[in-house]
């Protein structure tokens, strides 16, 4: 079964053909980064306009690269939530229209579940496991029992992990997009340059929740208070110290979940899963099997959408054309 995936939830216009939920035949990602860089953040109005311009050529390219005519695909999957409304509507409406005109089944998929599925495109992972979903908009630690069966254990109560990277990078004018820039700068910095406070671990139902506002405030407004005066105040040192704290906040909750649930396989997904320090620290835990998607599938792409779409469509699960976009992750 060859599924065409379409992804337009944020600032990448993407289309991909994946066979049987596993084999990527084509994977086209048109990034809008240069158009948002001037504002050091995604401008929703620009994003949806670019999606409207690019969606047809991007889908065409994905089909051409797969040497397929539109009628030769077996189904269409598009991201329906969460994301920027104006952006989501472009890909979702395009997907529904193509489905209707070709008479092929259509499925709307959840972007965060698709991020989780990305790891399955490159590795054999069996359920159950713990999911670590870290993107620009969401931070979720969850138990995963199937491709669409997740139990959320913890989320960020304020900024998402990627958002914290992006805001700190924007404030210090380090470059755009912030996460990848901080990761790169941190390679040449020393994490001991600043000792940022770690949010305390909660008990009870919030024990896996993450908070980034304290770290963000410390890094932006109270940097003098936490800086180690024996280190020069360079971008590299700042990036390394911030990244170290940001990653350790995540891992403290994740490791707690590993201990409590006894699940020793962790599957990561989302843009922040590309972070080299996160990957390294997780790899050091030899008692945990950690599965990261390849770097090319951490950020937004449509292969993960097509792959997850296959899981539904191969079971005969389809969406109705009344399915609409939503900014919210649940619903
Ligand atoms: O999954 P994604 O591409 O889009 C959303 O669904 O949000 O994630 C984008 C986020 C951005 O906040 C970006 O700064 C962050 O992922 N990111 C990183 C790295 N690469 C991208 N954060 C930390 N380290 C990285 N190497
Ligand atoms: Zn994403």
UniProtKB/TrEMBL annotation:
Enzyme Commission designation: 2.3.1.234
GO molecular function per UniProt: iron ion binding; tRNA N(6)-L-threonylcarbamoyladenine synthase activity
Keyword Methyltransferase in annotation: no
Protein family according to the UniProt entry: Belongs to the KAE1 / TsaD family.
Domain Gcp-like: start-end pairs: 23-306
Names of the cofactor(s): Fe(2+)
Top EC class of this enzyme: transferase
Binding, Fe cation: 111, 115, 300
Keyword field contains rRNA-binding: no
Species per Swiss-Prot/TrEMBL record: Teretinema zuelzerae
Catalytic reaction list: L-threonylcarbamoyladenylate + adenosine(37) in tRNA = N(6)-L-threonylcarbamoyladenosine(37) in tRNA + AMP + H(+)
Pfam families per the UniProt record, alphabetical: TsaD
One term under GO cellular component: cytoplasm
Record's subcellular location: Cytoplasm
Annotated gene: tsaD
Entry keywords, A to Z: Acyltransferase, Cytoplasm, Iron, Metal-binding, Transferase, tRNA processing
Cofactor note: Binds 1 Fe(2+) ion per subunit.
Function of the protein: Required for the formation of a threonylcarbamoyl group on adenosine at position 37 (t(6)A37) in tRNAs that read codons beginning with adenine. Is involved in the transfer of the threonylcarbamoyl moiety of threonylcarbamoyl-AMP (TC-AMP) to the N6 group of A37, together with TsaE and TsaB. TsaD likely plays a direct catalytic role in this reaction.
GO biological process: tRNA threonylcarbamoyladenosine modification
Name of the protein: tRNA N6-adenosine threonylcarbamoyltransferase
Residues where substrate binds: 133-137, 166, 179, 183, 275
């Amino acid at each position: 079964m060859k599924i065409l995936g379409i992804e337009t939830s944020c600032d990448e216009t993407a289309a991909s053909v994946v066979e049987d939920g596993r084999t990527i035949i084509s994977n086209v990602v048109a990034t809008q980064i240069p158009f948002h860089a001037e504002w050091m953040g995604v401008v929703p109005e620009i994003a949806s306009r670019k999606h409207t311009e690019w969606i047809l050529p991007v889908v065409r390219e994905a089909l051409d690269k797969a040497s397929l005519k539109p009628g030769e695909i077996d189904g269409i999957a598009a991201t329906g939530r969460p994301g920027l409304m104006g952006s989501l509507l472009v890909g979702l409406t395009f997907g529904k229209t193509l489905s209707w005109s070709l008479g092929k089944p259509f499925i709307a998929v959840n972007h965060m579940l698709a991020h989780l599925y990305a790891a399955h495109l490159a590795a054999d992972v069996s359920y159950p496991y713990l999911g670590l979903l870290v993107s620009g908009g969401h931070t979720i630690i969850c138990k995963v029992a199937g491709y669409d069966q997740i139990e959320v254990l913890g989320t960020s109560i304020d900024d998402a992990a990627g958002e914290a990277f992006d805001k700190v990078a924007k404030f210090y004018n380090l470059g755009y997009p912030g996460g990848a820039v901080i990761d790169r700068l941190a390679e040449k910095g020393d994490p001991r340059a600043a000792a940022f406070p770690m949010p305390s671990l909660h008990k009870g139902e919030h024990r896996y929740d993450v908070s980034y506002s304290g770290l963000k405030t410390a890094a932006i407004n109270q940097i003098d208070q936490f800086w180690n005066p024996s280190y020069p105040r360079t971008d590299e040192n700042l990036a390394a110290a911030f990244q170290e704290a940001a990653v350790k906040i995540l891992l403290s909750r994740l490791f707690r979940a590993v201990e409590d649930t006894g699940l020793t396989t962790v599957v990561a997904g989302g843009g922040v899963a590309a972070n080299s320090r996160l990957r390294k620290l997780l790899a050091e835990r030899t008692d945990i099997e950690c599965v990261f998607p390849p770097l090319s599938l951490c950020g937004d792409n449509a292969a993960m959408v097509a792959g997850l779409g296959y899981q539904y469509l191969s079971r005969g699960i389809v969406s109705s054309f009344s399915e609409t976009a939503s900014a919210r992750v649940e619903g």
